[in-house]
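Researcher: Good morning. I'm working through a list of sequences from a screen, and I'd like to move beyond sequence-only analysis. For each chain I'm collecting a predicted structure so we can compare shapes side by side. This is the next one on the list. No need for commentary yet; just the structure.
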Amino acid sequence: MCICLTFQRNICALKLILFSCLVTHDVILAKDGDVWPTREFRAVWVATVANIDWPTSSHLSSTQQQSEIVTMLNKLQELNTNGVVFQVRTSGDALYNSSLEPWSQYLTGTQGRAPNPYYDPLDFMIQEAHKRNIEVHAWFNPYRARASSTSKKGLAPNHMVFKFPNYAYAYGNNLWMDPGAKVVQDHIVAVYSDVVRRYDVDGIHMDDYFYPYPESGEDFPDTHTYHDSGSSLSLADWRRHNVDSLIQRLKSTIASIKPYVKFGISPFGIWKPGNPPGIAGLSAFDSLYADSKRWFEEGWVDYLTPQLYWRIDPPQQSYPALLLWWLQQNRMKRHLYAGNYAAATVTKHWQTSEIIRQVQISRKYKDILSLGNIQFSAKYFVNNTLGLADKFKAELYSSPALAPSMSWLNASSPPAPPNVVTSGAVIKWSADRTGIVRSWSVYHMKADVWELVKVLYKDQTSFDTQMRNGYFAIRAVNRLCMESKPVFISKGQISVGTIVG
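Model: Good morning. Structure tokens for this chain:
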């Protein structure tokens, strides 16, 4: 016991010496080995089709539409979320200024009519979201040409059904473009590329509509395209090849334009029945011709968000069983963000506790790259439906979080915050001059653990500690949420073991 006490005294003396070397005018140089909070992507889908989430009406003025965006983002910031998946193309239309496709009817009431007074909704969303340290992923539906109608009446002259009339089909209650037609695929790639080039989006997102969900007794009318292709593949394999080809092209095209822009897909949550054993339901592989397991395995996406729109307990569509199965397909170590059906608290009368528990289950798998959740959809949180927003804030998102970074994407590492000083209770530093910094993360040491207390937009270069004592750390954050080395700051009474140990 005497030997142990002597050893402990020597360690404390060594820490005191190290600390005296580290502290300079209350600023402490960075050191390795610290443990930082777990990253988590916390996002909502913002659906514009049928005015589900935004704008709430196609007859709102430009000012009212902008006000709704600001209100939405303020609420999401208050809830400590860090992402929106914003639907910018519902069915061959555009909720942004496009030379390739017409303005959406959901924006102005008439397809092809621009907002008046003019503004660009995607650009406005990006600017306002980034100020609040919220990522914007532009969400596209690739093949649907018109939702809830098979009529071409009211479609703008530059709509894709008129550009490619031989490949536009009425199927079920919608109009669809033929995924097997190269001119259609080329057009879709051009639309995606245009947005990547012109807008400061953080991600590009595709939903679960590939070949349409099957209609009873009605086959998708692409027989002539299949025969004209001369393919030796079966019809089903040919259809899957068409979708695979688009996914590969989009991934490589996005990377060639802006290698830091993320590419994600939210497929139907069941790849094939029986995967894992006991799971039953529609087969996305056989019915939608979406081999999403392959896209994940091959690393054709940066993140996958399977739509796990089922409860936890029923075995035939078990949320945890499906989540774990998807994680086990991730041989390229990409990210998985579970897709959750918050709308079911209204449409299916689920208890809000079901959604809370699903997020908690997702967190249990963080060590195998379950790194967040995307909720469908925004309005249930903005409107605090059934107290859902309050419960998320109290039980899940009580403090901010940075989105997980993607080491395989190309972005410059941010430099450490420059010229950090203290002035009373305020920590200050100089503005970024490199153009790399998107935001600043501020940490406080609490019970020997670094806690993220604030994420500041790049233009904010001070933080009021509100007279809290202890240790703080400031880090620069780039657009991929990669952080710089920290700069540590001591405030008030110094505890040697905390800062160096």
